[in-house]
Amino acid sequence: MGLTRAFHLAGARTVVASLGKVDDRATQSLLTEFYTYLWQRKLGKLEALRQAPLTIMHRFDPRKVSSAAR
């Protein structure tokens, strides 16, 4: 919570943060989709953040996941 508060005190209006460890590739995919919805499709922040994981789940192909990752 300290880092989020610091960003707000520095002038950030919105902060997206995770409360736990996240996979770098998954985070990259999520944020790429989020910004696509936010900037290119002109959705609001909340709707863009709602649509991003839905898009990723829709595209997910479990056959492409290596057996080591399971």
What this model shows, in words?
The chain is mainly α. The chain contains 3 helices and no strands. Helix 2 packs across helix 3. The longest helix has 17 residues, at 24-40. The radius of gyration is 15 Å and the shape is flat.
SSE layout:
Layout: H1 2-9, H2 24-40, H3 45-59
Q: What overall form do the CA principal axes indicate?
A: flat
Q: How many beta-strand segments?
A: 0
- Mean model confidence by pLDDT: 88
Q: What kind of sheet is the major sheet?
A: none
Secondary-structure-derived class: mainly alpha
Instruction: Give the percentage of residues in beta strands.
Output: under 5%
SSE arrangement, N to C: HHH
Separation of termini? 31 Å
Low-confidence parts, pLDDT < 50 over ≥5 residues?
none
Q: Helical proportion?
A: 55-70%
Question: What is Rg?
Answer: 15 Å
The number of distinct helices, counting runs of at least 4 residues, comes to 3
Features:
mainly alpha; flat; 3 helices
In short:
This protein has 70 residues and is mainly α. It is 57% helix and 0% strand. The mean pLDDT is 88.
